[in-house]
Amino acid sequence: MERILTKFWGDISNLPEAKKIALMYWTVAIVLFGAQLLFGLIAAYQYINPDFLYSVLPFNITRMLHINAMVVWLIMGFIGGIYWLLPDETGHDVVGAKLGRIGFYLLTGAVAIVVLVYLLIQTGKGNFFTMWFINEGREYIEAPRWADWGIVAVMGIIYFNVLATVLKAKKVTGLLGVLLVDLVALAGLYLAGMFFTPNITVDQFWWWWVVHLWVEATWEVLVGVLMGWALMHVLHTPRRIIEGWLYLEVLLVFGTGILGLGHHYYWIGTPEYWLGIGGFFSSLEPLPLVAMIVHAVYDAGVHKLQTVNRPALFFIFLQAFGNFFGAGVWGFMHTLPQINLYSHGTQMAASHGHLAFFGAYVATNLVLMYIALQYIRAPQGPILDSKTWKIAYVGMIVSMVGMVGALLVAGFAQTFFERAVGGATWQDYIVTQMHPWVKIPMYWRLGFGILFFLFYFVLVYDMLTIGKKKATEVEVKPA
Ligand code: HEM
Ligand code: HEM
Ligand SMILES: [Fe+2]
Fold first, then answer.
1. What separation, in Å, do the N-terminal and C-terminal C-alpha atoms of the chain show?
2. Alpha helices, DSSP H, located in 49-96
3. Which of 77, 203, 388, 416 has a C-alpha 20 to 30 A away from that of 136?
4. For residue 167, how far is its CA from the centre of ligand 2 (angstroms)?
5. Which domain covers residue 453, as residue numbers?
6. Residue 411 confidence (pLDDT)
7. Are 162 and 215 found together in one domain?
């Protein structure tokens, strides 16, 4: 393991155990990012040619692998981020490092087995055996029940690591306090995805507790902690300011996001009052995202963009703006019940889902990984910079915007022709699927997807090389 880490990240011999565990998680995360994209590409091609791999790896499996790989790598990335900042925030190396490593191997092993079962066995009868050992059938959290409990156990280990280390700290910082509370909520919500009920409405009711309350509440607060910490390291923003903003953001995120859950309860058979509650609170959800932009831009302005870590700073911008546009603007677009009545379940949701996950969560992970790269390869040295990160950065943004734009056009066309003009019958659906405004964007999505995949390799190349050649390639500017 040490050898792999050294190859990828550089000389890690002097790192505290916590940071080594972080790198273990991040290494797997980056590989799974690639797997996510590969399955996304196959799924995108199957949209155009449904026969492709039909009897070997059908669309439902490639799609599931695409979004499951995404959830797992993003979470592994966050876990890495938590281990990385732990020694800096507490002044101690992680307590229970051995256990932490075991947790990593358990999680990685479980993920590998689940993926193999998805690939080789794929489906089973609609009974408890299938639920326990093959696939649970709830979008994003399809992992079979045994793996669910494995994940809960690993989360317990991680929580123990964090709590025991924090308890040793001289002072529990505001960042750590928020982190401790948020992790309980985040792990606790996962349990809501495990209720078994034969009633599909009740099932969906609880399932959204995981999916929505993760991405629009607990994950959003977690990235608040991670990005706050990143701002302190990349721009030297004072802790007082970071923590003040963080409390405000927690208040706004939870204040709007918890009841914003109602925007998923419009049409699933829950009582009508959710129309009002969901519409009202979810419309306010962009507020904290605006606050985050103001915060990041203000800090960068105060420090006149002076930083020791260019890629991390620019991924911070991507995070602030991507979160605001992807989640805030693209989410707001279809969150009022009057609009959602027509747009529900169209490609608009996919357009929003891609931009939000990319902007809010992929960017956060990359910020932290670049902070680590600088810490390992250029601790006192020149500014961390290279040509290739810029190519990867611009390339990924352009191809993501291309995919999201294509899906948006298709989503508008569906909303208009199938729902508003048509009337949402099955025939309207079929006819609209063949409309050029829905068909052609699927080619665009594939094209931009291929581009995105290429830039992923540029990113990996940059991560492998940036800061290694130090003085020769990097211009040193006086501070
Ligand atoms: C980073 C935060 C966010 C992420 C990652 C995210 C992601 C997603 C994803 C993946 C879906 C599709 C779910 C499915 O498969 O059915 C979805 C649906 C939805 N999101 Fe978000 N979202 C975020 C924030 C927001 C915000 C802030 C709003 C509102 C302002 C919003 C409004 C909606 C609505 C209304 C739907 C349902 C679409 C439909 O009815 O088809 N989202 N979101
Ligand atoms: C190579 C680039 C990519 C391609 C070709 C691709 C393709 C696809 C396809 C074909 C689907 C299934 C859509 C459907 O069921 O109608 C999908 C779903 C999804 N993808 Fe991607 N994807 C790519 C990258 C990403 C990235 C980078 C993210 C975020 C980090 C992402 C997040 C998602 C999400 C959240 C869904 C579920 C959306 C929903 O249920 O509405 N994808 N993707
Ligand atoms: Fe939501």
1. 37
2. 59-90
3. 77
4. 40
5. 209-471
6. 98
7. no
Task: Quickly tell me which residue has 């025991």 as its tokens.
Answer: 164
Residues 241, 259 contacting (CB under 8 angstroms): no
Tokens standing for residue 323: 């979160």
pLDDT in tens, 347-397: 999 999 999 999 999 999 999 999 999 999 988 778 899 999 999 999 999
Q: Are residues 48 and 105 in the same domain?
A: yes
Beta bridge mates, 309:
384
**What is the distance in A from the centroid of ligand 2 to the CA of 101?**
31
Q: Which 3 state secondary structure label does DSSP give 309? A: strand
Length reported for the chain: 479
Distances (CA, A) of 241 to 233, 296, 403: 13, 11, 37
Report the distance separating Cα 173 and Cα 179, nearest Å.
10
pTM comes to 0.96
The CA distance from 83 to 109, in Å, is 20
The parts of the chain modelled with pLDDT lower than 50 are 471-474, 479
Residue 384 sits at φ, ψ, to 5 deg, of: -75, 120
Q: Domain check: are 223 and 146 in the same one?
A: no
Question: Nearest residue CA, atom 18 of ligand 1?
Answer: 349
**Rounded to an integer, what is the distance from CA 114 to the centroid of its chain?**
20
Ligand nearest the Cα atom of residue 213? 3
246 by Cβ neighbours in 10 Å (0-12 / 13-18 / 19+) ranks as buried
Q: Is residue 365 within 6 Å of ligand 1 at its C-beta? A: no
- Please, which residues have CB within 8 angstroms of residue 115's CB and are 6 or more apart in sequence? 35, 65, 69
Q: How many domains does the chain have?
A: 2
The domain that holds 305 is classified in CATH as 1.20.210.10
Q: What Cα–Cα distance (Å) separates residue 211 from each residue in 194, 205, 335, 345?
A: 12, 10, 16, 15
CA distance 359 to 364: 8
pLDDT score for 380: 79
Q: Determine whether the shortest distance from the Cβ of 222 to ligand 1 is under 6 A.
A: no
Whether 260 and 381 map to the same domain: the answer is yes
Q: Write down the pLDDT at residue 304.
A: 84
Same domain, 162 and 233: no
Nearest CA among 374, 358, 308 for reference residue 19: 374
Helices in 200-272 by DSSP H: which ranges? 200-213, 219-234, 239-260
Residue pair 446/44 in contact (Cβ under 8 Å)? The answer is: yes
- CA pair distance 163, 182, nearest whole angstrom: 12
